[in-house]
Design a protein that fits this description.
Layout lengths: L1 E8 L2 H9 L2 H26 L1 E5 L6 E5 L6 E7 L5 E10 L1 E3 L5 E3 L2 H27 L20 H6 L24 H12 L3 H14 L3 H17 L3 H7 L9 H14 L3 H18 L4 H9 L22
Helix pairs in contact: 1-2, 2-3, 5-6, 5-7, 6-7, 7-8, 7-9, 8-9, 9-10, 10-11
């Protein structure tokens, strides 16, 4: 068994420099990327390079440091959609050599726990290297990913080269089943594959499972949105609007309103579509949503983008559960 981690992904601005920069800049970006991967892996070995061995005295499993970690690194420079996307997949075999030369299972809890920190170290190392080599300046650092974009590259250019990936993990197929009756993100993956392969009718079932049975509120809302989009694609805008009926959760308000607007537009009801888009614009900041596309939709309807702020409520109870 092997475990693959792809936390060593460059910010999109760096991927663009790697793709379109001159020879000096391209080499500087690649050198910084490789240095970041090496330092991240050194951190992973130091803090997560363990196996567990049986303690005959306590009867428990004790952590034992491994003398090293063997890993394979595959460098990729494009996303599945064909956009510039410099990243490396680090594959760590589950069996590693102990000090005595015997193979033992890696302590995957330690590996998983430290993987995010490894990604942050990769990002920080890469920034330091590029600041020294080409004088790069950086925007704000994302507190979750540790990632920052280079100052001076138009956000619209970054957006244009950031198309959504059209494939998911190979193991996600139509035969996934529920575990203990609880839908997982795998159902969303199946539905996405179906939609992308032109099988929107097949996508509805797994999305409905998540929407009606999941205990995770965020998963329910994501499934609801995706199901509504599927229904619009199937020529069922009224059902899509019904699927996104009140109450509307605050964090998803902009996305709910936008999809409802799309459904009304599919019905050629431009007045209601415009009203929904304007309300989506008003909720965009709260939902962490880029408002540019909404503004274009509003302008296409011959109107001036005017945010409308409405009160929204939060759905805290799974549909169908007491």
């Amino acid at each position: 068994m092997e475990r693959s981690r792809a936390w060593s992904a460059a910010p999109k601005s760096l991927s663009l420099l790697r793709a379109y920069g001159d020879d000096v800049v391209q080499k500087a970006v690649l050198d910084a990327h490789n240095t970041g991967v090496r330092e991240a892996m050194e951190y992973i070995h130091t803090h997560a390079g363990y196996t567990r061995v049986h303690n005959n005295i306590t009867g428990r499993k004790d952590l034992q440091r491994l003398p090293g970690l063997v890993a394979a690194v595959y460098q990729h420079e494009t996303s599945r959609a064909g956009d510039p996307h410099l990243h490396a997949h680090v594959i760590v075999p589950n069996k590693q050599a102990r000090v005595d030369g015997k193979l033992a299972a890696v302590d995957t809890d330690s590996l998983w726990h430290e993987s995010k920190a490894g990604g942050v170290i990769y990002q920080a190392t890469m920034r330091r290297q590029l600041t020294q080599s080409i004088g790069a300046e950086w925007g704000l650092v994302d507190p979750y990913t540790g990632m920052a974009e280079i100052v001076g590259i138009d956000p619209e250019v970054i957006k244009a080269h950031s198309r959504r990936s059209t494939q998911l993990r190979a193991w996600a197929d139509d035969n996934l089943t529920l575990i203990d009756g609880e839908p997982t993100q795998a159902q969303l993956a199946i539905a996405r594959i179906d939609v992308e392969n032109g099988r929107s009718a097949d996508a509805a079932a797994p999305l409905s499972e998540v929407m009606n049975k999941s205990k995770d509120s965020e998963l329910r809302q994501i499934a609801r949105l995706r199901l509504a989009r599927v229904l619009i694609d199937q020529g069922k805008p009224d059902e899509a609007i019904k699927t996104l009926a009140e109450p509307i959760p605050a964090t998803f308000a902009a996305r709910y309103r936008e999809v409802r607007g799309d459904a009304y537009l599919a019905k050629k009801d431009t007045a209601h579509a415009l009203a929904e888009y304007q309300q989506a614009l008003g909720a965009a900041d709260m939902s962490g949503m880029n408002a540019s596309l909404l503004e274009l939709k509003i302008q296409d309807l011959g109107a001036v983008p005017t945010p409308v702020v409405n009160a929204v409520s939060v759905d805290t109870q799974p549909k169908g559960n007491p």
